[in-house]
Structures are given as structure tokens and as C-alpha cells.
Amino acid sequence: MVGDAISLKGALEAVARLSQIKKELSDADFKQSIVELRGLLLDAQENILELREENLSLKQEVEKLAKIQTAETPTVEIEGFLYDLVNGQPSGLPYCPTCLVKEDGKRYRLGKLNKEFSECNNCKVTHNASSGGRVNFESSSYR
Ligand SMILES: [Zn+2]
Fold first, then answer.
1. Which domain holds residue 46?
2. Which of 24, 54, 71 delimits the end of a domain?
3. Ligand 1 centre from 51 Cα, in Å?
4. Which of 19, 21, 95, 102 would be 107's cystine partner, CB 3.0–4.6 Å?
């Protein structure tokens, strides 16, 4: 990681240096500087490719772990909303029922809007469900 930053920084510094001293250099020196600069850029490019690969494999690892975790969490369904089950009670906000169906069981936890409603950050659907298993409030009867 540090090496990547250094080689990219080196390349950028070389560009700045080149434009500053271009006039003072002989043709041979200038060509040599270009060769060095190309080398630095190639190194930087290679490092970026390696980082992309590493990033991709880390993302896959995270996705795999997230699947394992959700598979192991016990859940309870309350009027169509799936909640994590903690000490025998529905806990936190439920998972988006729309995405559960649309994305073949993939769980997206809803985000709280207020004490009655929550919204899915993935599909943006608002649901009449809140934390701890409170679902299908009739707004009018609670005001
Ligand atoms: Zn959703």
C-alpha cells in the first residue's frame, strides 16, 4: 500500500520536475527522464491493478461472510416482516419484505423513518413496520 502511494507520487513528481526543467536539459537527458517516467507510470499502473484484484477478492469475502451471518441469525416473521429473534423477541428493524422476494432471499435491513414507518435503502419502498416487531400501525388511531 505504501509502495503504491510512493510510486504514484514519484511519477507525479517526475512530471512536475520534467515540465520545470525541460528547457535546461539536453536531448539525451530529456529522453532519459522520459524513460524513467514511463517506468514509474508502469509500476504505478501495475500496483493499481493489483489493488483492484485485492479489492475484488475482499468484496467477495465480505459478501460470503454476510451470507453466513444472515443464515445463522434466527428470525421470526410478524405479519410478513422478518425480524431477528433475540431472547425470544423480535429485535431491531425488520428486513425488507420487497427485496426478500425480488432478490431471492437477500436481506436488506430497513432504515427507521419514524416510530411507525421504515424505508429500504435498497429499493426505497416505505413499509409500515418499526423496530421490535411493531407492524401495520394505523397512523390515524395512534394520533
Ligand atoms: Zn427493499
1. 2-71
2. 71
3. 32
4. 95
Tell which wins on pLDDT, 66 or 125: 125
The continuous run of DSSP H or E covering 15 comes out as helix 2-21
Gap from CA of 134 to ligand 1 centroid (Å): 18
Asked if residue 32 and residue 82 are part of one domain, the reply reads no
Centre of ligand 1 to C-alpha 112, Å, is 13
Q: How far is the CA of 61 from the centre of ligand 1 (A)?
A: 23
- 38 CA distance to ligand 1 centroid (A)? 48
Indicate the pTM of the whole model.
Answer: 0.49
Question: Are residues 53 and 86 both part of a single domain?
Answer: no
Both 82 and 55 in a single domain? no
Distance in angstroms between the alpha carbons of the first and the last residue of the chain: 56
What's the pLDDT at 141?
42
Measured CA to CA, the distance from residue 41 to residue 31 in angstroms comes to: 15
